[in-house]
Amino acid sequence: MGVELNVIEKGKIPRNIKKEVVNTLSECYRRFSSSASNMVEVQIVDMEITVRDFLREEKLRVGIASGGEGVLICSHDAWRGYPRIVVCSENLNRLGKLARTGAIRHGAAHSVLHGSLEYYIFRISGDCLHTAKIKGLDTSVLEQVLHYLSVAVKDFEASRFLIKHDYINCQFAYALERIRLSEEDRSAWKSAKANRQAKFLYQASLLKPVLFAHPLLALPRSRKISLEHQVQLGRRVEEIVEHLEDTERVRLLQVANLIAENSTEDTHTNVDFALHYAMSLA
């Protein structure tokens, strides 16, 4: 049995964009085979502002904690108990062809790996609560860090899953479009580094792009990957952490490596480990 795509359009969606999204997803699910759900809802929305409003309202309606979303291209959720992919036509159309394919496939991977509500509910372990108390961290800060880490871990798992299914070049293209340091990021660090809790939050947020890229950077040459693309991506990761102090940069990359190297096939276990390792950043 194949995967049924329930496609919903919001706003004026170019026919070629809808066709590209549907064809790419259908091809993905055929390759994923038995891993895929029976039904995936696909919302194709015209503009980013409309996507943000829609997701904000959805979070309020189902009681999901909000967090920084970054640039929305192809997001995913299972807040209503089934997998859903939300594609922003405006932002998707700004990418090159291969990166667009990579973004859509990334959403498909999430819908397979994290397609039920349990992957959006995580709890802080007693050990981490105890450590946070010793370090003088507010519970609200720890909860926000947990959110950042759950997103980072799921992105890592999606990248790893796509590589397993030989979707590699498109993921390099998507990563090179997605992983960029903005002036806003630099300004945020200048404001955060004087405050221990704000600094912890900022560093935790950097684990998302670093872990997203990790499976691609760890690929051996035998996989016939583009060495040029791997070098470019490595430099891009270096750029997003280069403004940190030397010791902070080294520690952040060490934490990312520990999370990746000790990852299992269980998302909740991986998020628990990630929070445990990330406490050393505080």
Task: Describe it.
The protein is globular and about 55 Å long. It starts with a strand and ends with a helix. The protein has two domains: 121 residues, 3-Layer(aba) Sandwich (Collagenase (Catalytic Domain)); 160 residues, no CATH class. It has a four-stranded mixed β-sheet. With 282 residues, it is α/β, with parallel strands linked by helices. 62% of the residues lie in helices and 8% in strands. Helix 4 crosses helix 7, helix 7 packs antiparallel against helix 9 and helix 9 runs antiparallel to helix 10.
In DSSP terms (H or I, runs of 4 or more residues), the helix count works out at 12
Shape assignment: globular
H/E element sequence: EHEHEEHHHHHHHHHH
- Strand percent estimate: 5-15%
Fraction of helical residues:
55-70%
Summarize the structure.
With 282 residues, the chain is α/β, with parallel strands linked by helices.
Strand and helix map with partners:
Blueprint: E1 4-10, H1 15-32, E2 39-45, H2 48-62, E3 74-77, E4 84-88, H3 89-92, H4 97-113, H5 126-135, H6 139-164, H7 169-178, H8 183-192, H9 196-217, H10 227-241, H11 246-261, H12 267-278
Task: Provide the descriptors you would attach to this structure in a database record.
single chain; 282 residues; alpha/beta; Collagenase (Catalytic Domain); 4-stranded mixed beta sheet
